[in-house]
Every structure is written in structure tokens, then in C-alpha cells.
Amino acid sequence: MFATPAFPTHDPDHGAPIHPRHLGTVLVLGGSIAGLLAAAAVAPFADRVVVVERDPLPDQPGPRPGTPQAQQSHALLASGCAAIDELLPGASHDLVVLGAHKGDSAAEVHTFAGGGRLTATVAGADSLAVSRLMLEAYLRSRVRELAVVTLLDNTDVRGLRGELTMGRPRVSGAHIHDPGDQEGEDESLDADLVVDATGSPGRAAAWFAREGWDVPEHEAFAVGVRCATTHLARSSGDVGGRTGVLSLATRQTPRQGLALAQEDGAWTLTLTSYEDRPPPADPEGFRAFGHSVDAPEIGELLDTHEVLEPPRPYRLPHSTRRRIERTTLPSGYAVIGDALCSLDPNFRQGMSVAALQAVALHDELAQSGARDKRVDAYHRRAVAIVDQAWDMVVTAVHGIRGTGEGRSEKAFVSYVAAVQHGARSDPELARAFLRVVNMLDPPQALMRPGIVVRVAGAAAHLPPTHLPSVHLPVHLPKVPLPEVHLPSPPLPEILMPVQIAARRTKARRAARKGGRTAYKIKDQGSVS
Ligand SMILES: Cc1cc2nc3c(=O)[nH]c(=O)nc-3n(C[C@H](O)[C@H](O)[C@H](O)COP(=O)(O)OP(=O)(O)OC[C@H]3O[C@@H](n4cnc5c(N)ncnc54)[C@H](O)[C@@H]3O)c2cc1C
Fold first, then answer.
1. Which of 33, 52, 163, 183 is 20 to 30 A from 442 in CA distance terms?
2. Ligand 1 pocket member 350 (CB < 6 A)
3. From the CA of 79, how far away is ligand 1's center (Å)?
4. Complex ipTM, two decimals?
5. 220-316 — its CATH code?
């Protein structure tokens, strides 16, 4: 399906700031999105970076066994796109030249949230529609240009090598093996820093247990996602000339649809079920499922365009994370991407989380101070990035499933539903919501006073029974904007999520003892 792209070449030293190379050898375990971005992040500080990947790595875009998800639709959120450009300048421009579509998702993508179409607006949320296979191949080509980096593919990591330094375990390398040579001995690679980018959070747990180190607690959140992806022929006038359609699942319609224009001129289309049964694999059943999501454009695409291949199914029962913040990790070890947290794919966060973490790793290594302290500081930021994504998934899945513990979580779910409802007609609410979805702003941004007032104003125009997916906990007063005087009884209710968020933020700050904020990309001209 992929024509052979001619990847542009770069001089990686051109214009790059010079940093002291205070690391000798860095091993990056896993050569997928997180591993490649980690290699780019540490390269300015290391004499040598070796990326160890089990699969043979092709020069061109192509599937491989270690990343079975790569043939499902992937979108790169605006925050991830900006982070990749920061690490590898010009990356998104190159990808656009190769056929990817970059644009403000608030204007370029028809978004249905909470059962309604969000009004088009300007959100400064430039996301990238590109196949995951193309993105990974491009990143490989960029990382190969870095003089200090070697990609050691077709090599299995069997475990970590450790020693005890001043009472704290220290990772000093990794045991590797040629997967084609079952009889052969493991080899050992030395490293000053080992970055774990092996994907599933479970792998390192076994390695830690074998060494007798504390194994970080493993947390799973049931998401029960079943999806299937196909490709459709595409013409430029489809869906009003936009490059994407996103139909988010709701309590009433626990089904999701995502169509994205791809660099090869086709649509990639993923249908997702939060129900017990997956989207049907037969053409008629798949088409009918497409018509059952909220965005009519998904069904229309299936009616009018040739389906180029049978739908490819995928199942993800849980989002999982390693609670590294609750234990002391061995020194000389850093973790990034899905190896730290794998998220519900329907929120399109995984690659962006990895990219934001890679920027955080780069920034922390650029600071002066002891290396172990810098890595600890990186982990605090990496966890903060995960928290942001994880909280969004948990809130949204509770909204879809009608679950959630206690009044506070339910109130938060209701509040987000009210934001989505208001975003159908209020461009500022659409902007605020999509900036959070794109991880440009934290979820707390939805509770800025200016946003709360707009949500109240929008909700006041409908009786609560007409609200889209989850009812607001109170009858909101009918108030004219912009002079809003909310009477006292409803105010505490609508502000409850604000108070909860403030409490959570305070608790996290205390837990992190002054860890730095995760958000580098500032909102230009927010409404609050
Ligand atoms: C269905 C689906 C759809 C998704 N859609 C999106 C989306 O739209 N947007 C988005 O941002 N994210 C999406 N994601 C998430 C995204 O795929 C990942 O979060 C992202 O690719 C980061 O992955 P990673 O590099 O951390 O891990 P992985 O991609 O899992 O890579 C791990 C790598 O480590 C290698 N490896 C593992 N063990 C070893 C070993 N012992 N020795 C050597 N190598 C090893 C593997 O071969 C692999 O190359 C989706 C995920 C799924 C499942």
C-alpha cells in the first residue's frame, strides 16, 4: 500500500545548541515511537546511544510484529506534533511534504462530542493526520542521521543488569540476545543510563522481580475497547473538504468512529465499540455499525466509497500504568511511553504522551546537577504528563459507561458533558475543550471562571432533560451573558468540579514536592 517515500535529509548539528556530553553510553530499549524519540532526546548529551529493538527495522514504512497496533488509525495530537518538532526540527513540515495533513483540528476535523457537532473554531491545535507506519519510518530516518545513535535491530532484550551502589540498586546495562539463535549465550551491554521504551508496562516488572528490586505497583483501568480499522478510497471534496471526522462515544451511543485522511490519498477509518461485541467484520455489518455512530459523515463515507481491505480488528481490555511515583526506582533507569502507561487508544494520546515525555527528558538532562536527580525530576514530569492523559480517559470512560465512584466523579463527568453541549454553539467552549483533548491545556483549564460562566450560560438555554449525555446535577439558572449572577444554591454544585480539581492539584503538588509543570505549550489568549 505504501509507495517508497524519499525521506528528506538533515544536518542534525545545524543550529542545534551545544550541550556538554555528560553521559557515556545510553541504551534505549525498544525502537518504536517512544524509543526513537527518547534517542533523539538523549543524543545531545551522550557519547553513544544504542537503540535495541527486537524486530528487524525496515527502511520504509511497513508493519512488524512488535507493534501490532500500528495498522490501526493513529492521529498525532497538537501537543505531540509540537513536541516532535521541538526534538526534531522540521519534522511535521517534512511529513506534510510526504503527504500528511496538518491543520487546526478545531477547523479541520468534524468533531462530535456528547452527541452533538462541535462548532468550528480556531484553537491553535495543529494536529497531524499521518499513518503510524509512515510516522515511525520517518522518525527512524531522522534518528539514523544522528551521529551518536546506532539502531541495533533484530536483538531481544532479556533483562537488566544491576548492581548495588550506596544501598540503591543501579541499572548498569542490559542483557541482549539474537532471537534467531536460541542456543546462543546472552550478551551484555554496559550503559550509564538505560531508557525503557519496550511498550507494555509488564515487561520491566518481570526484569525488576528477577533482580529483587521493588516492582512498581501496576494499575489497570477497564476500558473494554474493541475496534476495527479499514481504508477507504478518498476524494478531495469528501466531508466538506475537511481531513477528519471524529465521533466520540457517549453513554447513549457507546460507539466511536474516526476517519482520517492519510498520506497515501486514502481514508483510514476506525470503528470502536465499548459494548460487549466488536464492530462486525462483514462489509454490511461494518457499514451498519458506521451508521450507528453520532457523526453522519462516517456512514456516508462507507456508503459512497470503496472499502479497500477487510476491517482489521484490535482489542484492548485495559488501560494500564506503572505507579513509579509510589516506589524508588533503581538509578540509571528511565521509563517512557507505553512502558510507563498504555492508554485507551480512542483518546489518541499515546504517541503525544511519549513525545511530551521525550521533551521533558531532554530538558531535564540539559539542566546542571547530578544525573540521578535529573532522571528523578524527569520521572516526576513524566508522571504528571501521564496523570493528565489518564484522568481524561477515566473521566470519559466513566461518562460512556455511566460508572464512576461517588458524587465528585459523577459531577465532573456531568460538567464535561455540559462543556461539550455548550461547545456545539460557543466557539470559546469548543476551543477550550479541543485544547484539552489535544493535551495543550490540562483538564483544569475547563474550570477557569470564564469557561464555567459560559457553560452555565449554554446550559441555561435547555432544560436539563435535554442535555446530551449526562444530566447536570442541578437545574442551572437561565442567565443572560455576559452579566452573570448565579444564585447561591446552584453555584456550589457547578463549581464542585473546580474544587475537586483544586484539591487534586494540591495533593499532587504535595506528593511531588515541587516537581515541575508538564505543560510547555502555553495557551495564547485564553478566555479566562
Ligand atoms: C488500537 C490502537 C490505536 C492507537 N491509536 C493512537 C493514536 O491515534 N494516537 C496516539 O498517539 N496513540 C495511539 N495509540 C497508542 C500508540 O500506539 C502508543 O502509545 C505509541 O506508539 C507509543 O508506543 P511505545 O513506543 O511506547 O511502545 P510500542 O509501540 O509498543 O513499542 C515497543 C517497542 O519495543 C519493542 N520491544 C518490546 N520488548 C522488547 C524486548 N524485550 N527487546 C527489544 N525490543 C522490545 C517492540 O518490538 C516495539 O518496537 C494507539 C494504540 C492502539 C493499541
1. 33
2. yes
3. 18
4. 0.99
5. 3.30.70
